[in-house]
Protein 1
Amino acid sequence: MTSNLAEQFLLDPDVVFLNHGSFGACPKPVFEDYQRWQLKLERQPVAFLDSRRGLEANLRAARLALAAELGSAPENIAQVTNATTGLNIALQSLPLAEGDEILTTDHEYSALEKTLVFVARRTGARIVVVKVPMPFVSAEAFHEAVLAGITPRTRVLFLSHITSPTALLFPIERLIAEARARGIFSVIDGAHTPGHIPLSLDALGADVYSGNCHKWMMSPKGSAFLHVRPDLQTMIDPLVVSHGWTADNKEPGVRGPLGNSAFIDEIEMQGTRDPSPWLAVPSAIAFRHAHDWWRVAAECRNLAQETAERVRGQFGLDALSSPEFSAPQMVAIPIPPCDPLAIHDALLADYGIEIPVFAWQDRHIARLSCQGYNTRGQMDVLVEALAELFGLRQRHRKLNTA
Ligand SMILES: Cc1ncc(COP(=O)(O)O)c(C=O)c1O
């Protein structure tokens, strides 16, 4: 929001970066901490990666810091590389059988839709996709639509907390409670939520919740977690079997070889890999606290919503949702029918704007992210650029035809 904050990031100053949502962006001090860990690793790889010589304590410290931030106990949180991995671990572990049903919505992330199909093919389960009532203006209508999809065969409820194509904040609390009451596993895709909305995972009560730290928490790419309720952890199998596997995993209370729960050791030991992104999570959390990031986020939210309204206003298009159901710092803005790739490419080439533009169902969308490094002036550039590209105003920028 201020040039001061923009200076804290490594982003190319020639790009109007309005796509924090895809891969995040890491502040300089956090990135430096990440590189410090990597240098330490490279100076003495054996000492660094030997769990007896400090690695396990370092991993645990990161787990502790993250657990405090997310409102859960460190024993329930395992480090994974990304939310896709965390959700794959959980979905591929669930005891599904022929004819069981996985209930989900038509707003899910495409990679996880594929994971559901993969799981369904392997197990014989059926995927039931609920159409979410749009525009999204009522939690009640959402709850009713999802609950109407439940049958006696429903075994899994799979929901995004913040959706990717539509940037909606799904009110999932009641659905998680309903699933629990009916013996249905709730599996939540929280790829966009850590650092984006305050989270209290224990209070939320989902059976499985996987989220990325590398998006809105602004830690280095490759830092994410899988959270599983304590009583279900013995059900979870690792995708990669390595030193952490214990044949006796299925007995509650069994410790893994590194002294953590079997759940954590099985998932975190995956063969040789660089744990530095995860080890830098505490400095991302410290950076956020030092800069009062929830206040920054609230300003970003206002700017994102206001910009979305300006764009919609000039096209005369309705919002996808009422403001309380929009992800705070990410808004899916409807734009007129177009070739989305051509608009994306023109925004980047002619105006230096990086923003995802795509077709989703019968809509065309520009998904605006607003983070602390963005400015009001950048939002003006976006509003103006869209007006020009759709012929509402004459182009006064020289096209880059090279
Ligand atoms: C809703 C949702 N789920 C999952 C993912 C996957 O995240 P990752 O690639 O970090 O696993 C994304 C990525 O943008 C997403 O938007």
Note: The chain has a mean pLDDT of 95.
Protein 2
Amino acid sequence: MLELTISDTVPVVIIGGGISGLSTAFWLDNFGIPVSLFEADERVGGVINTTLKDGFLIEHGPSTLQGRTNELLETIDAAGLKDEVLYANDIQKYRYILKRGKPVPIPLSPVSFATTNLFSLSAKLRLLGEPFIKPSGETDESVADFVIRRLGKEILDYAVAPFVGGIYAGDPEKISLRSTFPRLHALEREYGSVIGGMVKKMFDKSKSPRPKLFSFRNGLKTLPEKLANILGDKAETKSEVKNILPPNESASCYEVTVEKGGTTKIIKADSVVVSTPSFQTAKLIEPFSSDAVNDLRTIEYTPMAVVALGYKRKDIEHPLNGFGMLSPPCEPHKFLGSLWTSSIFIGRAPDGSVLLTNFIGGSRHPELTELEPEKLAELVHSSLEKLLGIRAKPILKEVYIQKKAIPQYTIGYHEKMNSLEEVERKYPGLYITGAFRGGVSVEDCIANGKATAVKISENFSKQNNVPLREAIDV
Ligand SMILES: Cc1cc2nc3c(=O)[nH]c(=O)nc-3n(C[C@H](O)[C@H](O)[C@H](O)COP(=O)(O)OP(=O)(O)OC[C@H]3O[C@@H](n4cnc5c(N)ncnc54)[C@H](O)[C@@H]3O)c2cc1C
């Protein structure tokens, strides 16, 4: 029989223990506001997870952080993780794109751009005209349309499409420039030219240090685990939130139903933060707004399989001198990209071995994520064999499949966000965050988590007439 308990009112309930929910909870706790976080799974971290197997340190989801945002660095600092940070080796600046069966280096300077065989002479000359192309009046253009219009088809095929496939698992024909790459969108609006704007920004930034790619000594799961550790029993795993009821005439606060083992708890809360993926959020906010529910349901997630392969170094001809390689959709390879993980970070593979982390599926080949793990490993190995000159079978094969991996900010995405703002306005104390809103990268999730915590603490201070703690960096 299910046991039912009803709690006293708590200030804030957070639903979801991925990095979005954890960073919101961490900052609220840091500001001195009591929180209760519920995570359905038996571990925190959501798509962030790391496994150590036979001396290989393998990421199931994200592998690297960029350090673009202050919020990420502040969170690492406040969580006491600075000493755990592991910077990428300098070699990571070299990246490759596959062309006619070979990894071709991405040019890093104007001189190497002029001489690279990645792009034809006509594609290079076409770029000289880019500053003279008038901005389009289109407000929500696909990445493909934008790039073809301003930079040409070859730049789409051999620069932008591989990047969009490898990083976002997305289709440049479908994803919205404005929503996925707001900075690129802004360059055209502000400077009338992407190239001109980039050059101008490069000079503006030349005095500030470039962000450095990093992870943690024991992998990315260090971050969610540490945040959960600091939260202690304020973060509960194996606790699935079944529903949320809005305040009504008989109850002045939200009621959150949580199932844990054989127990059902009803938690009363002044504020609720929903940080689950959009398809889960849609279910949870059903009693609040049918418009928001419909919009959330139409946010597409692409599937992704991460295929980690370990080899003996001596069995690979290629020097693996770089970050890795991306595969353009116009080339015949099945995988989207391959990270040369043990070249990027020290300590990712045992001595004399290398670790390659490969991505397969996405919107380009979603059907491949239906294959058995063994088949996927074989498929990736047979592609890499020829491309990198691999002479032996892998000594490590690990496959992690996520059916709904990365939310896609497709055309029309921007309008979908209006109904979320509307429901938050209508229900003060309800906050919706997560990778489907305001950026998919780990650091965007952290920045949005902290911003949510700041908003809640401002409201909390107003209601309780408490001055904002100095720690709040607004
Ligand atoms: C393969 C892959 C590679 C990536 N690579 C990078 C990278 O290199 N760098 C980068 O910055 N980003 C990368 N990303 C993106 C980034 O990792 C994610 O966007 C981000 O971690 C998502 O965090 P989240 O908390 O919003 O969602 P999630 O991690 O999905 O967390 C949501 C949590 O909510 C829980 N939950 C769901 N329903 C309920 C419920 N009813 N009750 C309680 N809990 C519930 C889930 O169990 C889950 O733990 C990658 C993503 C993937 C999939």
Note: The chain has three domains: 3-48+219-299+410-464, 119-205, 301-407.
